């Protein structure tokens, strides 16, 4: 069961990684919402934020934090985001909130990825949480068949359209012992926009509540 108190602790603890004058990469979700609330107290000491979703953009703007375009900022020093699962190597499943593609872009553009979770997200092996995959709509069935060939059970997240106008398939039934290989393999299938595995680019720091993993 997820723990709101630990999510708040993690969101607030991540503030210690924010340096004066920084442009901060900001993820998406209920844990990140605590981080955004805490970031608002420092808004006069940072240049602004690069957001990973329309949801976080709205939250940032509501609190008066400038939202900047990644194409204009260049690379970032810090990215803060939550996760759906985290293994002992800081490899993650993300995308429960359907924001995985922009999250992956901002994570890739950042020197340090600080992941904020509650203890319910810690696992030994990734895959109990169904793996989200963002797909181009016309490729949904093709990708579903490719997933079945690989032993997964694809379920279309019916009714959900991502910020990029695409669809989400959640893959059940995979025990992901080699997440880097699976991420690389899935990235080759035409029509897959992003895989919710953050293994090639794992987190650098994981805060479970206010404690380091
Ligand atoms: C959104 C994500 C979130 O980081 C993930 O779903 C965790 O969310 P929460 O902090 O609400 O538990 O990947 O796409």
Brief account:
With about 210 residues, this protein is of the alpha/beta class. It has helices spanning about 5-15, 30-40, 55-60, 70-75, 100-110, 140-150, 180-185, and strands at about 25, 50, 75-80, 85, 90-95, 110-115, 130-135, 155, 165-170, 190-195, 195-200, 205-210, 210. β4 (about 85) and β5 form a beta hairpin.
Task: Describe the protein in words.
The protein has 213 residues and is α/β, with parallel strands linked by helices. It folds into 2 domains: 3-122 and 201-212, 3-Layer(aba) Sandwich (Rossmann fold); 131-196, 2-Layer Sandwich (Alpha-Beta Plaits). Helices cover 29% and strands 25% of the residues. It has 7 helices and 13 strands. A 6-stranded mixed sheet has the order 2-1-3-6-12-13. It has a 4-stranded antiparallel sheet with strand order 8-9-7-10. The chain is globular and about 50 Å long. The model has no long low-confidence stretch (mean pLDDT 98). Residues 2, 27-31, 81-84, 94-100, 103 line the site of ribulose-5-phosphate.
Which short descriptors sum up this protein?
213 residues, Rossmann fold, 2 domains, binds ribulose-5-phosphate
Secondary structure blueprint with pairings:
Layout: H1 4-13, E1 23-26, H2 30-40, E2 48-51, H3 54-62, H4 70-73, E3 76-81, E4 85-86, E5 92-93, H5 100-108, E6 110-117, E7 131-135, H6 140-149, E8 153-156, E9 167-172, H7 179-186, E10 192-195, E11 197-198, E12 205-208, E13 211-212
Parallel strand pairs: 1-2, 1-3, 3-6, 6-12
Antiparallel strand pairs: 4-5, 5-11, 7-9, 7-10, 8-9, 12-13
Helix pairs in contact: 1-2
Bound molecules: ribulose-5-phosphate.
EC number: 5.3.1.6
Keywords: Isomerase
Catalytic activity: aldehydo-D-ribose 5-phosphate = D-ribulose 5-phosphate
């Amino acid at each position: 069961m997820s723990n709101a108190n630990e999510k708040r602790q993690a969101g607030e603890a991540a503030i210690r990684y924010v340096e004066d004058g920084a442009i901060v990469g900001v993820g998406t979700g209920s844990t990140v919402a605590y981080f955004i609330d805490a970031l608002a107290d420092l808004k006069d000491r940072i240049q602004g934020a690069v957001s990973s979703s329309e949801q976080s953009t709205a939250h940032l703007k509501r609190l008066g934090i400038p939202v900047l375009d990644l194409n204009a900022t260049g690379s970032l020093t810090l990215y803060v985001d939550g996760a759906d699962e985290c293994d002992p190597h800081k490899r993650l499943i993300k995308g429960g909130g359907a924001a995985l593609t922009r999250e992956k872009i901002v994570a890739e553009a950042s020197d340090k990825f600080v992941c904020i979770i509650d203890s319910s997200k810690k696992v030994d092996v990734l895959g109990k949480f169904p793996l989200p995959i963002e797909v181009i709509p016309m490729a949904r069935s093709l990708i579903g068949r490719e997933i079945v060939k690989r032993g997964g059970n694809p379920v279309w997240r019916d009714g959900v359209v991502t910020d990029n106008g695409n669809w989400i398939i959640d893959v059940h039934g995979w025990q992901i012992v080699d997440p880097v290989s699976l991420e690389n393999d899935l990235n080759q299938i035409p029509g897959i926009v992003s895989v919710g595995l953050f293994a090639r680019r794992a987190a650098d720091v994981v805060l479970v509540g206010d404690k380091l993993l």
